[in-house]
Amino acid sequence: MSKPRQAQNEEPKLPPVWQQVQTAIWLIGLAILFWQGWIFPGILVLVAISGLTQALMFAYVKRQQNAQALETAREVNLPPTCANCGGPITKQSVRWTGSHTATCPYCGAALKLTDQPLATSSGAPR
């Protein structure tokens, strides 16, 4: 039980590309501060800029992760065939009408997404 709690308390990590952006902000900001001699008030501004950019980057990464999780859930919960016409259903062929609703590309019937993931033909999760 301690592992899930520990995972919840851990601060999420930014991907390396985003960490490099933070590094660049600090290096460029410090170079400007020392070059212009604005050490005291400038460092406070640099901390604020760094904090704002990190918050924006975390929000962007979180939104991307949520979109990817939704896409995976959609793909896993699609029925293999349409209950109305029996046509094969794939995530590329359906028309998504909502986050959890889709229509059959062949007959236009509303597809009922399953609550539990369906097993794939290879038996491995997607």
H/E element string? HHHEEE
**Total count of strands:** 3
| Low-confidence sequence ranges | 118-126
- In helices, the fraction of residues equals 40-55%
Radius of gyration: 24 Å
Helical segment tally? 3
- Tell me the count of domains: 2
Categorize the overall geometry.
rod-shaped
Structural account:
With 126 residues, this protein is mostly helical. The chain folds into two domains: 1-77, no CATH class; 78-117, no CATH class. Helix content is 54%, strand content 5%. It has helices at residues 2-9, 16-36, 39-77; strands at residues 95-96, 102-103, 110-111. Strands 1-2-3 form a three-stranded antiparallel beta sheet, with no helix packed on it. Helix 2 (16-36) packs antiparallel against helix 3 (39-77).
SSE layout and pairings?
Elements: H1 2-9, H2 16-36, H3 39-77, E1 95-96, E2 102-103, E3 110-111
Antiparallel strand pairs: 1-2, 2-3
Helix pairs in contact: 2-3
In short:
With 126 residues, this protein is mainly α. It contains three helices and three strands; from the N terminus they run αααβββ. It folds into two domains: 1-77, no CATH class; 78-117, no CATH class.
Record keyword descriptors for this entry.
disordered C terminus; rod-shaped; 126 residues; 2 domains; 3 helices; mainly alpha
